From TrEMBL:
<protein>
    <recommendedName>
        <fullName>Lipocalin/cytosolic fatty-acid binding domain-containing protein</fullName>
    </recommendedName>
</protein>
<dbReference type="GO" id="GO:0008289">
    <property type="term" value="F:lipid binding"/>
</dbReference>
<dbReference type="InterPro" id="IPR012674">
    <property type="entry name" value="Calycin"/>
</dbReference>
Length: 116
């Protein structure tokens, strides 16, 4: 992905990652567990409101998540590591699968996650 250091690309290329979303009324919690990071990352946010936090390497991240009428979750984000370049990630659940597409500039990364 453009702007991401090569060592991070390699670190995440074959990583096993689990993402858990918990919704309590208007409050959301996203927990990310991966063998590519030293400890779970927990993000607490409200849909439509900007969340400001840090990535696993301690650099800044900002994102705003919404859920569209088709059930997809879309977050608009930017990362200090990438010069705050805008990134859009779309997640859509189909049965026991979640399809994810991340776009930044003219680069797109797509992957599929299984429900556990």
């Amino acid at each position: 992905m453009t702007g991401v250091p090569e060592d991070l690309v390699e670190k995440y290329r074959n990583a096993t990652t689990t993402i858990e979303y918990v919704n309590e009324h208007e409050n959301w919690t996203m927990t990310v567990i991966s063998d590519a990071i030293p400890a779970p990352r927990v993000f607490k946010f409200k849909l439509g409101e900007e969340c400001v936090s840090q990535d696993a390497q301690g650099q800044g991240i900002k994102f705003t998540a919404v859920i569209n009428s088709d059930g997809s979750m879309v977050d608009s984000s930017s990362f200090e590591r990438m010069g705050w370049k805008p990134t859009t990630t779309t997640r859509k659940v189909y049965g026991n699968k979640m399809n994810v597409e991340t776009k930044t500039g003219d680069t797109t990364m797509s992957y599929e996650m299984d429900k556990v």
